[in-house]
Amino acid sequence: MEPGNETRLSTFLLLGFSEEPELQPLIFGLFLSMYLVTVAGNLLIILAILSDAHLHTPMYFFLSNLSLMDICFTSTTVPKMLVNIQTQSKAISYAGCITQMYFYLLFGGLDNFLLAVMAYDRFVAICHPLHYMVIMNIWLCVQLVLVCWVISVLHALLHSLLVLQLSCTHLEVPQFFCELNQMIHSACSDTFLNDVVIYITVVLLGGGPMAGILYSYSKIVSSIRAISSAQGKYKAFSTCASHLSVVSLFYCTGLGVYITSPITQDSHSTATASVMYTVVTPMLNPFIYSLRNKEIKRALKRFLGRKA
């Protein structure tokens, strides 16, 4: 989409889920509810952690960052969709589409890297408990989050700049947001470089964190099996059960969408599948942590009781 190229479009049309007018109020209400629950739930997790001195530890420092990223991740796509439904318009400007795609990649990447960092934190806590506070000091925690930001910013910027070099003849994007693959598939110019970069980054930036998570949990399982008492095993496993649930949800929904999207040609099915990791996963994360983590439960009760 080269500057000055006559084939470059000023607007795109986000097809979304359904063109049936009678379904629009239902879709609007459903997504508004899910968005408000996502923001409120993740915000409560952040405020509960900030208000409780007992939770000022590396594990909850990373969790508060993850909750913040979930808010930003959902806010990248859902508000624009709600505005479009309310105004009965499917249009998004060219600049708005590129900007949305950039921030979607940025916050999605940060979620991915933060889950890997949290797995490393659990690995150190369970496999090296005596050295945990020495290894996971505040400076290392900040540096790990900064590295996540730098890699995610560069990754999102790389794809955005490559998309800017494409020319496009197709107005319609079969999604409710500007998703990278759909943007590339709508181009009429050669997308070989874009496809190669996507495959490389998926392997390195997707497979790398996943491999790190799998390695960390293989060591964690080995350490837990070496614990003699059943109570000790349960206590050790309970500290990483919430994280393991969130990791499973994040990767299973993400992989499910990208495995099934080339198979199905139905744009509405693709958009519906994308909801799982763009909206549902960030919405469920606070519930997973608050239901399975006693410390978060206590912190939320104290925080809400203080405000009552």
Describe this entry's structure for a reader.
The chain has ten helices and three strands, in the order βααβαααβααααα. The protein is an all-alpha fold and 308 residues long. A three-stranded mixed beta sheet has the order 2-1-3.
In short, what is this structure?
With 308 residues, the chain is mainly α. Helix content is 76%, strand content 3%.
Q: C-alpha Rg, in Å?
A: 21 Å
Percent in helix: over 70%
Strand content: under 5%
Q: Whole-number average pLDDT?
A: 88
User: Which descriptor suits the 3D outline?
Assistant: globular
Count of discrete alpha- or pi-helical segments spanning 4 or more residues: 10
Helix/strand class: mainly alpha
State the low-pLDDT regions, or none: 1-6
What composes the largest sheet? 3 strands, mixed
Strand order of the largest sheet: 2-1-3
Give the N-to-C terminal Cα separation: 54 Å
Secondary-structure element sequence?
EHHEHHHEHHHHH
Topology, number of strands: 3
Topology (elements, then pairings):
Blueprint: E1 11-14, H1 24-51, H2 58-87, E2 91-93, H3 94-127, H4 132-135, H5 138-164, E3 172-173, H6 180-185, H7 192-226, H8 230-260, H9 267-292, H10 294-307
Parallel strand pairs: 1-3
Antiparallel strand pairs: 1-2
List keywords for this structure.
single chain; 308 residues; mainly alpha; three-stranded mixed sheet; 10 helices; 3 strands
